[in-house]
Specification:
Blueprint lengths: L1 H20 L9 E3 L3 H6 L3 E17 L2 E17 L6 E7 L1 E3 L2 E3 L13 E7 L5 E3 L6 E6 L5 E3 L7 E3 L5 H5 L4 H11 L2
Parallel strand pairs: 1-11, 4-8
Antiparallel strand pairs: 2-3, 2-7, 3-4, 5-6, 7-8, 7-9, 9-10
Length: 188
């Protein structure tokens, strides 16, 4: 019993010493500023219900640095804003896996193949789309037993500062019809 107490006491002493000396610790969360629905709408060219069909990761030079990006081909199920004749678009996100190298970029949306989502998109000059507000612009749809579709928060959503009034707080757990109404009334 004495040995166990000494071991516990030693571990506590080392922990306190580490804190006192400023030994760096691993960060536990990523923090982003919450965007309001109006801000998310202002940052978006298009809002749509999409279903990811295929994803491919590759190296790309962005801002002078080589990074892994993932291009996801999505089928547009419904245009909620900026309707076009495009049946499919490419949504790009930072991170992915190329061969044995993987790159994780916190806060990027995680589009799952076959999982319908509401996305807020910003189109680039090259015809690619980025999710506006990163994961704040990605809402996977969950179908309830009664057939209603609910918007859920993106699985890769980081911790949000200014949670009150954020788009995620406004849209999360809303039925798709109610989300359409909220998006339409905030667009005016």
């Amino acid at each position: 019993m004495k040995l166990e107490r000494r071991a516990v006491g030693g571990a506590i002493a080392l922990g306190v010493l580490g804190l006192a000396l400023g030994v760096p610790r691993r960060a536990e969360a990523t923090l982003v500023r919450g965007l309001t629905l109006r801000e998310l709408l202002a940052a978006s060219d298009r809002i749509a219900v999409v279903t990811p069909l295929h994803a491919e990761s590759h190296w790309e030079t962005i801002g002078g640095q080589r990074s892994i990006v993932t291009d996801t081909r999505v089928r547009v199920e419904e245009s909620m804003r900026a309707a076009t004749s495009a049946v499919e678009v490419i949504v790009r996100s930072l991170g992915g896996r190329v061969g044995d190298v993987g790159e994780l970029v916190h806060g990027q949306p995680s589009l799952q193949l076959g999982q319908a989502s509401v996305v807020f998109l910003k189109e680039t000059a090259r015809g690619l789309h980025w999710t506006a507000g990163m994961a704040q612009g990605h809402y996977p749809l969950l179908q309830r037993a009664d057939g209603a579709k609910l918007l859920t928060a993106s699985r890769s959503l980081p911790t949000i500062s200014r949670w009150q009034g954020s788009a995620v707080q406004t849209l999360r757990d809303k039925e798709l019809g109610e989300a359409r109404r909220l998006i339409g009334s905030s667009s005016r």
